[in-house]
């Protein structure tokens, strides 16, 4: 890719991807199974997501949203197409490089929280830092700071089972953001929560998660949180059928 | 991440205790069975360890110590004339019947010691004086004989009984290691022993000997064998010979061997299986770690740490319980239980092996794990 400074200097760069593009997906195809039972879930996806934006990925159940998100996050191998994430081609990376790439540059929020039940809230938040090799004291104290930003300063030493669902998901958001990732991916972060808790989580993802140097992708089918997004991409039957900006006032 | 691994392990107390119980049980089972087995093997050569001399000279075709094949009486002198032999004395060993004054009959092993030296006498005497064996008709019993023949109320110092219609008088009770067959042992002198038994062509059972200090025992046994044509073994060799005879010719080898091997396999399978299940149950947690950037190498290290931690804890507790059992059951030598360091080492190696193996199986599973499962 010729995306470095020398390009801007010479020609006008209309043909080049904008430097603000964080995720560029081209012709992505993904199938599951083999032989007669093969199901093609993603049938040629093209998608650009920018730094500083919060993209909502919506669509019918089984449409392939999770599959697309997993591919972008580099935790699922794809069959065809190009995947350019944070300036690097995921398709050309070895599994090991991809793993450390994820650890250093991405954050994850899962529908089922996926906190380690044996660790306290602060320790759970510290995990990405521990994986990076930080000392436990350093990592946990940064975990506590992050929890304070999530409004959980008084719950840092609680075990997940002693926290409400909404609080657990806030811990998960803190964990996803603790290493200041450039890409934050969230799969149905509000699906396991009630209305008010879902709103709270989306607020945090928008207010703390969204940042100029970060790209946020949220898969959801919860129409009550649509107004938190900047743009919405609709995925139906393995294809993106529409991308449009969201106007904050256009929500029920 | 070591900290995270240990917290995962100890975090779920119930699961951890289950895992620990499985491993502890496996270790305990193996150590306990193995020690009883080894205890029995030690008992099978009690006749050798109770006599406690360096060299045994036997019939060349001897199979084991308790199956006596008499040798020519001249053997003692022939052994004495072999260079390097410091001393050589005769030993009589034979089974006969004792008749108590209450009319009871008991099979006993009569052991006849060389009168001038009393070589082969038990090291410890519980009651009386062993030297009194030199008095007319005197015999010494071991403590198992007292037990088998009716207890202290029936037989003790001063009791008279008959051996082949000839009078015997108990003058002392000696302490010996219990034997496999648990036939009571009656000590007397060699000369008197051959008077108790019916006259046979050959009466000498064994020649006991010692090599001159500084000379390797094996060299002297080789010389004895070459010069006399008799069998000559160090006590240790004779012990092993007896053990292997017992293993080959009785059901103990097969029966106990099967039990131990099965116990080993079952125990180790339990251990491996429980640990494997533990990782499988935590697969989603490991998947989340993998999604968050933990390398397969890091996860492998975590799993190995968990496996070794629980493995070594189970080993410690298991050994402790087995030793406690052995201590209680084998108190006073009534039950066979000999825990050897070789067994403990073997179990340790096997246990760490099985922990590594099940950890490796879990690790391959993790390596293949699609971290995408965390989104399901
Ligand atoms: N590992 C897999 N093996 C086989 N089929 C799979 C696998 N993962 C997903 N699929 C199939 O791919 C299709 C899309 O699944 P995906 O989870 O991406 O849908 P989704 O849009 O996230 O749905 P939902 O809104 O219900 O979460 C489904 O038909 C699913 O059965
Ligand atoms: Mg989904």
Task: Describe this structure in a few short sentences.
The complex is a heterodimer of chains A (252) and B (376). With 252 residues, chain A is an alpha/beta fold.
Characteristic key phrases:
heterodimer; A: 252 residues; alpha/beta; Rossmann fold; six-stranded mixed beta sheet; 31% helix; globular; disordered N terminus; B: 376 residues; alpha+beta; six-stranded mixed beta barrel; 12 helices; binds magnesium ion
Q: What fold name stands as the CATH topology of chain A?
A: Rossmann fold
Count the domains of chain B.
Answer: 2
Distance between the termini of chain A: 43 Å
Q: How large is the radius of gyration of chain B?
A: 29 Å
Helix content of chain A: 25-40%
By DSSP, the count of extended strands of chain A is 10
Distance between the termini of chain B: 25 Å
Q: What sequence of helices (H) and strands (E) makes up the elements of chain A?
A: HEEEHEEHEHHHEHEEE
Main sheet record of chain B: 6 strands, mixed, barrel
In round numbers, the mean pLDDT of chain A is 88
The most extensive contact between chains is:
A-B, 32 and 26 residues
> Describe the biggest sheet of chain A?
6 strands, mixed
**What is the subunit organization of this protein?**
heterodimer
CATH architecture of chain A: 3-Layer(aba) Sandwich
Helical amount among residues of chain B, as a percent range?
Answer: 40-55%
The tally of structural domains of chain A comes to 1
Cα shape of chain A: globular
Q: Helix tally of chain A? A: 7
Strand order, largest beta sheet of chain B: 2-3-8-5-7-6
